[in-house]
Amino acid sequence: MTTSLLEVRDLCVTFDTSRGPVRAVRAVAFSLAPAEVMGLVGESGSGKSVSCRALMRLLPPRGVRMSGVALFQGRDILALPEEELRDLRGTELAMIFQNPSSHLNPVMPVGDQIAEPVLVHEGASRRQARARAAELLRQVGIPDPDSQLDRYPHQFSGGMRQRVMIAAALACRPKLLIADEPTTALDVTVQAQILRLLLELRDRSGLAIVLISHNLGVIAQTCDSVSVMYGGRVVERGSKRDVLSRPHHPYTEALIRSQPESAPLGAPLPTIEGQPPAPSELPTGCAFHPRCPYAQPVCVEEAPPLEETQDGRRSACWRWPELAARSGVTP
Ligand code: SF4
């Protein structure tokens, strides 16, 4: 049995708004082994990013209530004192974002930005930290790294800035990287390069990755396991191969069908009818019922539990046995 690096149980996030409490994340649970790449997939507003920011404790302290457990190597991140958390975030836990420009300091040379955590957390000398920054730039595929250290973020292209942010995130050799839509703003070629880079880093150093994406193609290329989120909950989870080839939840099935690659050439792209619900206006029962072609009266009244289906997979759907009995996604 593989030991978990991260074990998340019953994670809930509620925002206190002027209109009352809004439950953005509800009882999210998953676990991640060392060197595993897990995709967290779902439409906008499904709770993917809020869950991960909650795990990194990056949500604003006021007006946000969190509960649950997030054991990282046995320590509960959600209960750690601020100082221990800062240490952990600078070293063993790291996060990268869709837009590197808003997370890199525009008036600081990139070499200093990458070297800073090495100076602060590893007590390295300036010379050692600078050498490590150059080494990290080389690892993320930036050519002639020594001559790039004194350049500023705006002097790099979008794809190169994303690599710089990855280098800064990896400076203290984290064990877990949370990547929030890291390739969404990039063209297809650069996107493929960045995803390949993340996998190389996983292979080289055993880095575990939570990859947030709304793009199933990206998840299919990169991940070992998948958790699908809808309406603030995980509605299906399992190995990538199982979930994407034989989904046990109608929402996963609808996501797969709405990928451009699923449509025959020349046919209109299928979409999921309706809009995902706002967290403040979740439907009763199963949150997917207004859009679900399989919905029955029970779905309107009662939310299905996330229960084990087959082969260690889980689905939150009253009708999963019927989906599981079929051979795969039918167009
Ligand atoms: Fe559809 Fe009902 Fe399953 Fe929800 S519980 S996904 S509405 S069949």
Please explain how this structure is put together:
The longest helix is centred in the middle third of the chain and has 18 residues, at 188-205. An eight-stranded mixed beta sheet has the order 6-7-8-3-9-10-12-11, sandwiched between helices. The protein is α/β, with parallel strands linked by helices and 331 residues long. The chain is globular, with a radius of gyration of 21 Å. The protein is built from eleven helices and twelve strands. Helix 3 (110-122) packs across helix 4 and helix 3 (110-122) packs parallel to helix 5. It has helices at residues 48-55, 82-91, 110-122, 126-139, 158-169, 188-205, 216-222, 240-245, 250-257, 297-301, 320-325, and strands spanning 6-17, 20-32, 37-41, 64-72, 75-76, 93-96, 176-180, 208-213, 225-230, 233-239, 307-308, 314-315. Helix content is 32%, strand content 22%. The protein binds iron/sulfur cluster. Iron/sulfur cluster is lined by residues 250, 286, 288-289, 292, 294-295, 299, 304, 317-319.
Number of strands: 12
The class by helix and strand makeup works out as alpha/beta
How much is the average pLDDT?
91
The share of residues in helices is 25-40%
Biggest sheet, in brief? 8 strands, mixed
Measured between the Cα atoms of the first and last residue, the distance is 37 Å
Shape verdict: globular
- List the strand order in the largest sheet: 6-7-8-3-9-10-12-11
Residue fraction in strands: 15-25%
Classify the oligomer. single chain
Ligands (ions, cofactors included)? iron/sulfur cluster
Low-confidence stretches: none
Q: What series of H and E elements makes up the topology?
A: EEEHEEHEHHHEHEHEEHHHEEH
Count, helices: 11
Radius of gyration: 21 Å
